[in-house]
Amino acid sequence: MSRTQNFGSHFRSGAVAPTGHVYTFDFHQQRAASAREDFQSTGVDSLVTVGVRDIQGEGFPDEYSGLADSVFLDLPQPWLAIPSAGKMLKQMDLCSFSPCIEQVQRTCEALKSNFRGSPSDI
Q: Where is the tRNA (adenine(58)-N(1))-methyltransferase catalytic subunit TRM61 C-terminal domain (predicted)?
């Protein structure tokens, strides 16, 4: 995995330094291992924890419930992770990257079904 594939987590690690932490998950063991190596080689491994987990299928780990300041979803089907992501958040600060309008529509529907208020689209 190249540094450009981990750009989002690298960027967030800089944003949370020196006292915060980024938790990132990949369902593929080999990509997660490569990401760990990448974070170590760039010196941000103390700020980033890489886990192996299918967030769409399993959701986020319960031990992080209510601890996250924000959640960033870059998944093929982000709407599947919305209920679990909401449980992780201290307050509603969720970003989902979706290149297709169909993904955006389904994600917005999941947000409306799981949270009060209206999602903001950018």
A: 9-113
| Comparison of pLDDT for 120 and 110, the residue scoring more | 110
Kindly give the interhelix angle for 29-41 and 7-16, rounded to the nearest 10 degrees: 50
Residue from 70, 71, 47 nearest 59 by CA: 71
Reference 31, options 6, 59, 10; nearest CA is 6
Class of the domain covering 3-114 = alpha beta
Q: Contact 12/38 with Cβ under 8 angstroms?
A: no
- For position 92, what pLDDT does the model report? 73
Residue with tokens 């449980």: 87
pTM given for the model: 0.78
52 membership: H or E segment, kind and range: strand 48-52
- Fill in the DSSP letter of residue 68: B
Query: What is the rounded distance in angstroms from the CA atom of residue 65 to the CA atom of residue 116?
Result: 19
